[in-house]
Design goal:
This protein has 2 domains: about 250 residues, 3-Layer(aba) Sandwich (Aspartate Aminotransferase, domain 2); about 120 residues, Alpha-Beta Complex (Aspartate Aminotransferase, domain 1), CATH 3.90.1150.10. About 45% of the residues lie in helices and about 15% in strands. Bound molecules: 4'-deoxy-4'-aminopyridoxal-5'-phosphate.
Length: about 375
């Protein structure tokens, strides 16, 4: 029952990455591991485009990235502004509250992106220690305008935290150019490594803010005090211990980051844009709408199509799976049953796009939807032919 995995993480992984996962596990003090971890840290910094940033690669999921950013930058009584474009905005709000922050949300309807005026109004109304933005909220497929939002946050004195779990290595996230203080992602998405690693980069300003804390970090595992010497040691090609690194995942990460930088960030982002355009053209040609209200706020790492009238996910998604492609259901609580999600990131190819649209056509046909066979495929091929 081989099935192409086209959900917004985990994704299809490159065979060389999977081979690293399956290689005999070394000790975490082995010279080959020290070299791989050191190189993976350097490459993480390059990927996040933060020249003087401090990378952290930790065993855990994307939620650990969220937890680490919040735990280390927030002290009880601090204020936080969450630019909330979906489910993961709610989650980071809960994490901030857990560490004692007073949280304000700018929360437009599902599928919308808040206007810069709305965000500025909120920033003016209070003083915020941190502002968080979800680059691509995986529950809506909305792509946030990090460049302009981060500039606003900075102007009002907030440390800017970006959840890049569904964006880093697929969408351009330039921490240096855009003044982002902390960004993080998880291994299983566009980074292209099985689930289990959180990658985070802290800018020098974020590290200085952390060092100036008056209270201890509320999480023992996430505390940068514990991890900073470890990350610095491995990058200097020395070993250090706090918690046992996820050895095989780190080897696999280094392979994947090598491939990503070999492709080149610009080329990689362009490829994601092209793939996204083709998928979205296919979906539109079939007469389906999408959750993001306009094209300019739609992510390039995923697509969130709305079910056609009269067709439910309970019928469509299993029919698509039967045709060989696995897709994901809705996640945003307000519209959960109205849409589904296609992930298209990492090593995704033109062939994967055609397989996915073909399987969606098969599924729709099985559900009795009326359309001319090949409609989505030819719309996608047209995009590929144009660029
Ligand atoms: N943020 C975003 C934008 C995500 O898409 C996800 C995972 N879907 C997370 C955070 C949490 O990551 P994880 O599931 O790996 O904990």
């Amino acid at each position: 029952n081989r099935s192409l995995l086209m959900i917004p993480g985990p994704i299809e992984f490159d065979p060389a990455v999977l081979a690293a996962m399956g290689a005999p596990t070394t000790g975490h003090l082995a010279p080959s591991f020290i070299e791989a971890f050191g190189q993976a840290l350097e490459r993480t910094r390059t990927l996040f485009q933060c020249k003087d940033g401090q990378p952290f690669v930790l065993a855990g999921t994307g939620t650990l990235g969220m937890d680490t950013a919040c735990a280390n930058l927030v002290e009880p009584g601090d204020t936080a502004l969450v630019v909330n474009t979906g489910y993961f905005g709610d989650r980071i709000g809960s994490i901030l509250e857990r560490y004692g922050a007073q949280v304000t949300h700018v929360r437009p309807a599902a599928g919308a992106h808040p206007s810069l005026e709305e965000v500025e109004k909120a920033l003016k109304a209070g003083t915020y220690r941190v502002m968080t933005i979800t680059h691509v909220d995986t529950s809506t497929g909305v792509l946030a305008d990090i460049k302009n939002l981060a500039a606003l946050g900075r102007r009002y004195g907030a440390l800017v935290i970006v959840d890049g779990v569904c964006s880093v290595a697929g969408e351009n996230l330039n921490m240096d150019a855009w003044g982002v203080d902390v960004a993080f992602t998880a291994s299983q998405k566009a980074v292209g490594v099985p689930p289990g690693l959180a990658l985070l980069v802290a800018s020098p300003k974020a590290l200085a803010a952390f060092k100036a804390r008056k209270t201890p970090v509320g999480s023992y595992y996430a505390d940068w005090t514990n991890w900073l010497p470890v990350m610095q040691a491995y990058e200097a090609r020395k070993s250090a211990y706090f918690g046992t690194p996820a050895v095989n995942l780190v080897f696999a990460l280094n392979v994947s980051l090598g491939q990503i930088l070999q492709e080149g960030l610009e080329a990689r982002f362009s490829r994601h844009i092209r793939i996204s355009r083709a998928i979205k053209a296919g979906i539109s040609a079939l007469g389906m709408g999408q959750v993001p209200l306009t094209d300019d706020i739609a992510a390039h790492t995923m697509t969130a199509p709305r079910y056609p009238a009269g067709i439910s996910g309970a019928d469509l998604l299993p029919a698509v799976t039967k045709a060989g492609v696995t897709l994901a259901g809705g996640l945003h609580p307000d519209i959960k049953n109205e849409y589904f999600r296609i992930g298209h990131m990492g090593a995704v190819t033109q062939g994967d796009v055609l397989a996915t649209l073909g399987a969606i056509e098969s599924g729709l046909a099985a559900c009795g939807y009326s359309f001319a066979a090949g409609t989505a495929l030819s719309a996608a091929m047209k995009v590929f032919a144009e660029n």
